[in-house]
Design brief:
single chain, Rossmann fold, Protein-Tyrosine Phosphatase, Chain A, nine-stranded mixed beta sheet, six-stranded mixed beta sheet, about 35% helix, ATP binding, ligase, EC 6.3.2.9, peptidoglycan synthesis, Mur_ligase_C_dom_sf
């Protein structure tokens, strides 16, 4: 009997366990930490063996195959032992792909904007009446969806960690938005390793598939020049016209795929800011490749609501606007957020640093930021980076204190922007917890 051992009892691990069990595998879930009650309940109800707070090495190393959750790095001792023994390691998206039947996949990756683009693409598909689900890194297990409620189309947000352990996974439409330095701690601090990881999204594609990518991204274009690709390229650009794909000229977005031509004004986009114009183009092209009519694309792009924790408007308090961009866990995300600011900004920064280079923000901080409020355990690096640029920098150690300090510093007509550029694990459970505590504190003002 095929013995599937799953490392990690979170959303993707438990989803994979449910699918493996349904397909007749002998499944064992092992989590070095505590498994959340809701996930434990699902495992118990489905008679799936599990352990928490430890890894029993013998139980793990007798696997036919191991599925490891994306959060577990290669340098983990147990993973090293699995590799030495030659046990195949797969990711959850590989398992889901194995059992998806004749369903089709739009897979979206990139360092920034992938959650927004995934949600918008899904919204277009729903608006067009497709039988579809939004899955993957956005917080819904792809494997669980395949097991419990299979759909004809899956719109999947895919991280580089999920791509690292694919074998046959092949999306019908792949989207690569951008590549900036992120998660380098997981890639031996070699940017090249991270770039190769992102490009794995097209490694199994054929000439029946599409590859949508940003032609204005230098890193993508440099790497693409080294590859022979076996898929249909559809670039998008805001700098020049493309023969096939998408571009923005003046205030018009133009999409050209086969005979289909779509044009619409960028002023009609629900998502504002230059970075979101890229996201909207990518989603529009993806929708066009699968035959969604232009009227439906226009309708969906106009009435889309942005995601929670991603440039989310929270409230206007005595003329001060509060924006929650807690999902900005790297410098580039914060760069995009600042780029779309058109009012004086009090910026809340800080958290667990992932090897950040804050110098990338200097010009935008000079132009837009009147004060910085640090929200982290260790803020030395942020203070050193901006002390000569920003007249006021304050340290706080909770969302409530950060919000109160920011409100005092802001004047009517200003924006308070939470866009931390860091992971959240020093003070919060995750970026959602950070965003929620920020919003709760704003509501108390």
């Amino acid at each position: 009997m095929h013995r599937l051992v799953i490392l990690g009892g979170g959303e993707s691990g438990v989803g994979a366990a449910l699918l493996g069990r349904q397909k007749g595998y002998d499944v064992f879930v092992s989590d070095g930490g505590a498994i959340k009650d809701k996930y434990k309940q699902e495992l118990i109800e489905n008679n799936i063996a599990f352990e928490e707070g430890q890894h029993t090495v013998e139980q793990v190393l007798n696997a036919s195959e191991v599925m490891k959750s994306p959060g577990i790095p290669e340098k983990n001792d147990l993973v090293k032992q699995i590799r030495v023994k030659g046990i195949p390691v797969i990711s959850e998206i590989e398992l889901a792909y194995r059992f998806k039947g004749d369903s089709k996949i739009i897979a979206i990756t990139g360092s920034n904007g992938k959650s927004t683009t995934t949600a918008l693409t899904y919204h277009i598909c729903k608006t067009a009446g497709l039988d579809c689900a939004m899955v993957g890194n956005i917080g819904y297990s792809f494997a669980k969806q395949v097991a419990e409620d299979p759909k004809q189309w899956y719109v999947a947000e895919i991280s580089s960690f999920q791509l690292d352990d694919i074998k046959d996974f092949r999306p019908d439409v792949s989207v690569l938005l951008n590549i900036t330095e992120d998660h380098l701690d997981r890639y031996e601090y070699q940017f090249e390793n991270y770039i190769r990881s992102k490009f794995r999204i097209i490694q199994n594609q054929t000439m029946n598939d599409y590859f949508i990518y940003c032609e204005d991204d230098e890193v993508i274009m440099n790497h693409l020049a080294l590859l022979t690709i076996h898929t249909n390229p559809l670039p998008f650009s805001m700098k020049h016209e493309v023969k096939k794909g998408g571009y923005i000229k003046g205030d018009q977005m133009m999409l050209r795929i086969q005979d289909e031509r779509v044009s619409m004004s960028i002023y009609d986009f629900a998502l504002k800011g230059k970075h979101n114009h890229y996201n909207t183009m990518a989603a529009g092209i993806a929708a066009t490749t699968i035959g969604i009519r232009k009227e439906k694309i226009r309708e969906a792009v106009k009435d889309f609501h942005s995601l929670e924790h991603r440039m989310e408007f929270v409230a206007m308090v005595r003329g001060v606007e509060f924006i929650n961009d807690s999902k900005a866990t790297n410098v580039n995300s914060t760069w995009y957020a600042l780029e779309s600011m058109n009012k004086p900004t009090v910026l809340i920064l800080g958290g667990t640093d992932k090897g950040n280079d804050y110098a990338l923000l200097n010009d935008l901080v000079k132009d837009h930021v009147k004060a910085i409020v640090c929200m982290g355990v260790d803020n030395k690096k942020i203070i050193a980076a901006f002390k000569d640029i920003v007249p006021v920098i304050i340290e706080t150690d909770s969302a409530k204190k950060a919000v109160n300090a920011s409100f005092k510093l802001a004047a009517k007509g200003d924006v308070v922007l939470l866009s931390p550029a860091c992971a959240s694990f020093d003070l919060f459970k995750n970026y959602e917890d950070r965003g929620k505590q920020f919003k709760d504190a704003v509501k108390e003002l």
